[in-house]
Amino acid sequence: MLQAIVNGCIFDGESVHEHKAVLIEGEHIVAVVDPEQVPADIGASYDLEGGTLIPGFIDLQVNGGGGVLFTAAPTVDSLRTIGAAHRQYGTTGFLPTLISTRFDVMREAVSAVAEAIAIGTPGVLGLHLEGPFLSPERKGVHDAGKFCQLDQTGLDILTSLQVGSTVVTLAPELTSPQMISRLVEEGVIVCGGHSGATYAQTRDALAQGLSGFTHLYNAMTPLQSREPGMVGAALEDDDSWFGIIADGHHIHPAAFSVAVAAKKRGGALLVTDAMPTVGSPDTSFILDGKTIVASEGRVTNAEGTLAGSDLTMLSAVNNAAEFARLDWFEAVRMASLYPARALGLERELGAIRPGFRASLLALDSAHRIRASWINGAMA
């Protein structure tokens, strides 16, 4: 059935177009047309009422939502719950993220994601495996007792998802350049994070195909005058991207602004690192047997260590625009077009163009979400 979205502005990922309509058939965008070109016998129509239509947000780091932690319950039902919790805040595509855990749990997560994609679970684009190949010195809230060296068994698990995207966060100094190359050759997107890597070690990993950095600044070697560290390498390199958590707790707004200004345009991506408290009335949950509490937007364990976030993608976009004094639509790109490119999906998602998947957000004049579409299905 042909659908039309009418009577508003269209931000197509690059430019804002006044007085246009978007036609959708099935899962895809058919055309962006003038209002008078909308067929008279259209099957269904959505009135923007003078609002704005934008590409849906893509979050590459979602630990949980709706009261569910994916690592604790790596199932298709969990993915449905997490996706629904984040959809109300604009996330139309996401990578469920597995926090460092045992190999058997990793295999369960791979199976759940594969099934979810096969049956069309809304929003699931792949899997982000954050660990367990990380540095104990930069463990954050991860359980260092689960850390291990990346061997053939681990490699087999990391490359076992045959649908969607696989992102792996690892400490490059604790594995070999050859192992990074093998992951990349198998189509895995390799990111540096939870790492004590020097600048030189990070540059070596980039040369082997490492292409991203997980939650810039946090749990990695800092930028210093004589040792630029992983942060320095991430900011300097034009061919990689980094995820960054714009919640005002993980990093100072000024540090966020500096990172965005330093990075080549398109290389700074907004992520939430969200925990189960997003979209849930519950303010606490259990991670590795320890109680984690969300209070005033800050998520921590009993020792005060940050443990993910209570951030939504819509809040991240608004914060990014404020922190870095960005045009609001550039902040939208950081949550849609640029993550799509990072996953190699820039011909499918992140923009409103003919042939692209119809994963969209309808906003009112105050940039509040009125409706969303995932692959043409509205909610």
Q: What would you call the structural class?
A: alpha/beta
What is the CATH homologous superfamily assignment of the largest domain? Metal-dependent hydrolases
Largest sheet: 8 strands, mixed
Residues in helix, %: 25-40%
Question: What is the molecular shape?
Answer: globular
Radius of gyration: 20 Å
List how many beta strands DSSP finds: 21
User: Uncertain spans, ≥5 residues at pLDDT below 50?
Assistant: none
Averaging pLDDT over every residue, what do you get?
97
CATH class of the largest domain: Alpha Beta
CATH fold call of the largest domain: TIM Barrel
| N/C terminus separation | 16 Å
Count of spatially separate domains: 2
CATH architecture group name of the largest domain: Alpha-Beta Barrel
- What fraction of the residues are assigned to beta strands by DSSP? 25-35%
Number of helices: 10
How would you briefly describe this protein structure?
This protein is of the alpha/beta class and 379 residues long.
Describe this structure in words.
The strands form 4 sheets. Strands 1, 2, 3, 4, 5, 19, 20 and 21 form an 8-stranded mixed β-sheet that branches. Strands 6-9-10-11-12-13-14-15 form an 8-stranded parallel β-sheet. A 3-stranded antiparallel β-sheet has the order 16-17-18, with no helix packed on it. With 379 residues, the chain is an alpha/beta fold. The model has no long low-confidence stretch (mean pLDDT 97). It contains 10 helices and 21 strands. The protein has 2 domains: 2-54 and 352-378, Urease, subunit C, domain 1 (Roll); 57-342, TIM Barrel (Alpha-Beta Barrel), CATH 3.20.20.140. A hairpin with a 5-residue loop joins β19 and β20.
